[in-house]
Structures are given as C-alpha cells and as structure tokens.
Design brief:
The protein is 35% helix and 16% strand. It has 239 residues and is an alpha/beta fold. The chain has one domain (2-223): Rossmann fold (3-Layer(aba) Sandwich). The strands form two sheets. Strands 2-1-3-4-7-8 form a six-stranded parallel beta sheet, with helices on both faces. α3 (71-81) links the parallel β3 (62-68) and β4 (88-92). Mean pLDDT is 90; it is low at 222-239.
C-alpha cells in the first residue's frame, strides 16, 4: 500500500488536504496529514522534526512525501533525514532549494520585509487574505478565512540543513497555471520532473481531483538502496 504524507504550508493546517484525502483513500491509498505546530519558539527545524516523526510512525514500504508551498522546505529536509523511508517527494507549488535554502533566500527581501512588518507581536505573521492564495469563490473564501492562522516568523528565517541524501530520492514538482511564483524554476533546479495543473496556489482546495489524480499517477520507482554505511542516527546528528 502507498502512504501519502501530506504536509500543509504556512498559515494552513492539516485541514488543507481534507478535499484530497478521501479521493486518495477511495483509490486504496493510506493518508497521513500531520499538523505543523504554530508557536512562539517554533521554526523550520521543529516542523521537520514533526514530519520525521510522522514518517517513522508509518510502516508501509512505499511512502510519498508531499509538501505544499512553505512545506517544500520541510519535506525535503525530513526526507534527507529519512532517505531509506521515502520513495518519492512531491512539491505542490513548493519552495525548495539546495542545502542552506530558506524562505529568506528564495522569496527575497520584499517578502521578508512584509513578514517582519506584519509580525506585530514579534513572532507571528498574520495570515494573508484568501485571495493571496488564489481563492476567490465566495464560499471558499469564507471557508478558508475561518481556518487560516498566524505563522511563526522563525520558520521563515531558518535555513535548511541537508546532507545530500535527499537528492537521491526521485521528485516531482506540481506547478499551477498561471504561475505566480518561480516554483517551476525551483523544481527544475532540483532535477524534478514537472506536472502542470490549471488552478491557483491553493489548488488542493479548488481542484482536489486534479491533485489526487496527479499523486495517484506518480511513477513507481523501485526503492532506493540505503547508502553504504548510512545509519538513521547519522542523519539525526545533522540537526
């Protein structure tokens, strides 16, 4: 059985996948949707720890790790720490890069200036309006606005720490059209195959069937061999 670990992006919660999850389950897959903690002292590496825990609690042999938006950074580092467990990485409109990448380096000064200006309490960035995620249909706007929450600044300033193990795991970048951020460039830079979908940044809300079908149609490569001498605790030591 394939297990999809679906990780939500900034300002969202595990509820972001609730329209996709039943479609995957009906197709015979197992789905895990961890909730990333939102708190004063929480950052990128805390979120990575949470996803690593979710991976290690999953017994299925075929595991696909999916990250939306900010969670692209999270799932790549989590996979880097558990390369023997992850068969495929999917970035849905995901921010991602090489070792040392983070939102500050990828999104640029203008984004970070807005983050710091918005964090009136010094640690939490209020959620943007639903329209910033491409959500414009009135019922969906109300649905999303009720659920969005502030996101910790620290998660935007911390940088990924990668050993290189993640680069041996096949990956796919799901790019929405029209493209609003350079997600295609990020995916290409990592050598990931790309799949284009018509829809906004929060495509899992507006086009759940397209997202589910894309995940179910992923190529099924054989499990990658664990590098010689690799031990899980050695990846943990990178933290």
């Amino acid at each position: 059985m394939t297990t999809f670990v679906l990780v939500h992006g900034a300002w969202h919660g595990s509820w972001a996948w609730e329209r996709v999850t039943p479609l995957l389950v009906r197709a015979g897959a197992r789905v895990v949707t961890p909730s990333l903690t939102l708190g004063r002292d929480v950052g990128l590496h805390h979120h990575v720890d949470e996803v690593v825990s979710a991976i290690r609690e999953t017994a299925d042999e075929e595991l696909v790790l999916v990250g939306h938006s900010y969670a692209g950074l999270v799932v790549r580092q989590a996979a880097d720490r558990s390369p023997e467990r992850v068969n495929h990485i999917v970035l849905v409109e995901g921010w991602a890069g090489a070792d040392g990448a983070g939102m500050e380096s990828l999104a640029g000064d203008r984004f970070m200036a807005g983050v710091r200006a918005g964090a009136g309490d010094g640690w939490s960035v209020p959620a943007p309006a639903p329209a910033r995620f491409g959500i414009t249909e009135p019922d969906d706007v109300r649905w999303l606005a009720e659920r969005l929450r502030g996101h910790p600044v620290r998660s935007f300033t911390e940088r990924t720490r990668l050993s290189g193990a993640v680069d041996r795991i096949p990956g796919t970048g799901v790019i929405c059209r029209p493209e609003t951020f350079p997600f295609a460039r990020f995916a290409a830079g990592l050598g990931y195959r790309q799949v284009a979908l018509d829809g906004p940044h929060d495509v899992m809300l507006t086009h759940p069937r397209s997202v589910a079908d894309t995940l179910l149609a992923l190529p099924a490569p054989p499990a990658l061999p664990t590098p010689a001498g690799f031990k899980e605790e050695e990846a943990d030591a990178l933290e």
